[in-house]
Amino acid sequence: MSLSHAVMGLLRVRPMTGYDLKTAWFDRSMRYFWPADQAQIYRTLDALAARGWATSHVEPGVDRPNRKVFTLTGDGEAELLRWLAESQPLPTVRDPLLVQLFCGDALEDADLVALLRDQRSRHEERRHHYEAVGEIIERAPATDGQRRLWHLTLANGRGREDAYLAWLDEAIAILTGEDAAAPGEP
Amino acid sequence: MSLSHAVMGLLRVRPMTGYDLKTAWFDRSMRYFWPADQAQIYRTLDALAARGWATSHVEPGVDRPNRKVFTLTGDGEAELLRWLAESQPLPTVRDPLLVQLFCGDALEDADLVALLRDQRSRHEERRHHYEAVGEIIERAPATDGQRRLWHLTLANGRGREDAYLAWLDEAIAILTGEDAAAPGEP
DNA sequence: CCGCAATAGAGGACTTATCATATATGTGCA
DNA sequence: TGCACATATATGATAAGTCCTCTATTGCGG
After folding, report:
1. Which helix (H) or strand (E) holds A10?
2. What are the φ and ψ backbone dihedral angles of A64, each rounded to 5 degrees?
3. What is the helix (H) or strand (E) element at residue A112, kind and residue range?
4. What contacts A173, CB < 8 A, 6 or more positions away?
5. Which end of chain A has fewer CB atoms surrounding its CB within 10 Å, N or C?
6. Cα A50 from chain centroid?
7. What letter does residue A26 receive in the DSSP assignment?
8. Separation in Å: D22 C1' and B38 CA
9. Is A71's CB less than 7 Å from nucleic acid strand D?
């Protein structure tokens, strides 16, 4: 359960509610390298509390619903540090487009190109989004040490999207038959 | 359950057993973009049969255990084609190293660098592996159409690994403080 | 002869992840 | 008034994925 450790990593900076974790972290940065939905976040917090890695207290909401704030315990921090220093498995990739391509013999090239173009526009959107994130990090209330690491994480995403887009363009070119024609006078 | 569709895509080429699917496909190519373990493959085959998307018959083993061969049905092929032409979600990435980096403020730089170097060697191994796959595809008994698409899928993996390695090197350089010193005589 | 690897399949137990819905409160807007 | 939206938490149901063990058979090497 590595979501536990991601959550603990965030709680370590400051105590937070499930809602905070979701809206401020998982909906923004975290989802690009460790997606998790609301239900999973809330249940993970409960699991952390059950294992003694976090405690919770309810803050009565001023003109708002009550907030259940989770705080990392000493045990939690120890476990976090242990995990953080431990070598982890390589990233897991699950890419339905590659399944489609791999089995795409059953389709016309034109259909494959349509799929590629569709993903291209969404990947491009994501890359545009990443372009804005650098400044968001700069304006974030955080230490320089944190900002430096966030920039590094962002750089990974940018590199990934750039590579993916380059590959998509290459694949589209090949499948539309734009590889034979050499540029220049015929 | 997109594993169903990946499996159907493979069954469409030729009827196969769970063992074939695992050893010939998931352990080799497929795992790089849609990992699945043995238990999941066997249960997915049962699910396909239950939904009428595949049928199975037992071939008595000649000097071997019996083989339960699964064949795609007409319904299965129709469903496969429907899915293949349908726009799919963007790839999901789950990268524990990025979680570690993102929360890595709790660690010394030297510890982070150790993590990065560790992953670097494994990513490099994977890239080396990819380098050999091109020729494997060429020698595979398949149509040119299939080979072309497999090469494209492989190119995606190569691009991904190259980008990841480049990022790792950059990150290691930054975290070891090798960004300030300009090369040249001191 | 013993153990090990390869071939082949099955299933229990569990964790992780997703989808949908329910609950409660206050604000702003049309 | 009526409804959408933001803030907050919770849970039921299901799907997907992982880990481990077990059953069989044959052939190979020591």
Report:
1. helix A2-13
2. -145, 165
3. helix A109-139
4. A179
5. C
6. 26
7. I
8. 14
9. no
State both tokens at A59.
């803050």
Cα–Cα dist B97/B140, whole Å: 35
DSSP one-letter string for chain B = -HHHHHHHHHHHHS-B-HHHIIIIIITTTGGGTS---HHHHHHHHHHHHHTTSEEEEEEPPSSS--EEEEEE-HHHHHHHHHHHTS--PPPEEE-HHHHHHHTGGGS-HHHHHHHHHHHHHHHHHHHHHHHHHHHHHHHSSS-HHHHHHHHHHHHHHHHHHHHHHHHHHHHHHHHTTTTSPPSS--
Distance of alpha carbon B85 from alpha carbon A113, whole angstroms: 10
Closest CA to B69 of B113, B124, B117, B10: B10
Q: What proportion of chain B, given as a percentage, has pLDDT over 90?
A: 89
Q: Determine if strand C comes within 7 Å of the CB of B67.
A: yes
* Out of B95, B118, B171, closest to residue A33 by CB: B95
CB within 8 Å: B94 and A152: no
Dihedral of the alpha carbons of B129, B134, B138, B139, in degrees to the nearest 10:
-10
**Residue A127 distance to chain B (closest CA, Å):** 13
Task: Report, in ranges, which bases of strand C sit under 7 Å from a protein C-beta.
Answer: 7-13, 15-21, 24-27
Which distant-in-sequence residues (6+ apart) come within 8 Å of A16 by Cβ?
A: A10, A24, A69, A70
The pTM of this model reads 0.92
Residue A61, CB, strand D, below 7 Å? yes
